[in-house]
Specification:
By secondary structure, the protein is α/β, with parallel strands linked by helices. The chain has helices at 3-24, 52-63, 80-88, 101-109, 165-180, 185-197, 206-214, 225-233, 262-271, 275-283, 314-322, 328-335, and strands at 31-32, 38-39, 41-47, 71-77, 95-97, 125-135, 156-157, 199-201, 220-224, 239-241, 245-255, 287-288, 304-306. Strands 3, 4, 5, 6, 7, 8, 9, 10, 11, 12 and 13 form an eleven-stranded mixed beta sheet that branches.
């Protein structure tokens, strides 16, 4: 077993233990002293599947700041929609970070996150990314853009759009790119039908999809740019393509209204916007929201970069594409017998 596979298998096992611990463990009782020092406090961090390695550096950096060496963290990582629903169902959480705003809206509607969660200079987003195409060493199938994914014989990996936030970004990137090429909405839907005929595995999350691809399945993986960088940092010898037309990914973060350590949780979230933390995010492959943290990093700018507003916002995109009964993806999955 090569080093990369060992790292990924260990990461999956640790994530599973973390989720179990967060479900059964009672957060340590703590307090904030009058001096503002945190002593023996446990914060519960619930996030989507990919930023675990970033937080492995961010949490120690926060603990090294004045008065926070006594703060510990329970961490849970998994498919974005699944994580949001778990919090609604009672999974302990002080801080949540999701793949997409739609999942944060779920917590707002449940009364767990304040409607003002995004009232900061960065609209509540802590990192950004773009959708890319990861290919194998030497790009043997000659994949250079979206059109190549629907050619005969191509095997595509992308997660399940009904559990994974990353999958939804991927689908919107593919559809939007067709419109940017001058195709009609009907032609863009036809493209999605053709694309999903090439999809051989739909894992529950972006990280699981990466594991499947690195395990040898598929010719191309549609995913976050930060996942491609993560794979490279852990020994993957393939490459990735940033399509000329792709979508800007924005990842939201917030503090729970009912957090027993709300002030400390806000302090942690505020820390994540500092130059130190944003640089650590950038080192882990995420596009920082703080421009100064881009120094030393080279993130290509796609020629036709669009965002969720291109689709009228998440509410409209969710209804049109991802409604489990009437959405475009439900129709496509049903037509394929899934």
């Amino acid at each position: 077993m090569n080093r990369l596979k060992q790292v990924l298998l260990i990461g999956v096992a640790v994530a599973a233990v973390g989720i179990l611990a967060s479900l059964v463990a009672t957060p340590a009782e703590g307090h904030i002293a009058e001096t503002g020092r945190a002593s023996d406090v446990t914060l519960n961090l619930v996030a989507y599947s990919t930023p675990k390695d970033a937080y492995a550096k961010l949490i120690p950096a926060f603990q090294a700041t004045t008065g926070h060496n006594g703060v510990s963290f329970n961490q849970s990582y998994g498919p974005s929609e699944t994580q949001a629903q778990a919090v609604v169902n009672g999974l302990p959480a002080d801080v949540v970070e999701f793949s997409l705003q739609l999942d944060m809206d779920t917590l707002v509607k449940a009364g767990l996150v304040a409607p003002t969660w995004n009232h900061n200079a960065y609209h509540g987003f802590v990192t950004r990314s773009v959708v890319v195409l990861i290919v194998r060493k030497g790009n043997p199938k000659h994949i250079h853009g979206w059109d190549d994914l629907v050619k005969p014989g191509i095997q595509v990996i992308t997660p399940n759009p009904f559990t994974s936030g990353g999958a939804r970004w991927n689908i919107l990137a593919a559809y939007g790119a067709q419109l940017k090429e001058g195709k009609t909405p009907a032609q863009a839907v036809t493209y999605l039908h053709q694309l999903f005929r090439r999809v051989v595995v739909q894992d529950s999350s972006a990280r699981n999809a990466l594991n499947t691809f690195l395990g040898g399945k598929g010719d191309v993986l549609i995913t976050y740019e930060n996942e491609a960088i993560y794979a490279r940092q852990h020994g993957f010898d393939g490459s990735w393509i940033v399509p000329p037309a792709t979508i800007r990914i924005e990842n939201p973060i917030a503090v729970l209204k009912n957090s027993p350590h709300r002030d400390l949780a806000n302090t942690f979230v505020n820390f994540l916007y500092t130059p130190t933390a944003q640089k650590l995010f950038a080192d882990a492959g995420y596009r920082p929201v703080l421009k100064s943290a881009l120094a030393g990093h080279s993130f290509p700018v796609p020629k036709q970069l669009f965002d969720i507003n291109f689709f009228g916002g998440w509410d409209r995109a969710q209804k049109k594409f991802f409604d489990r009964n009437t959405g475009i993806m439900a129709q496509i999955e049903n037509s394929l017998g899934h």
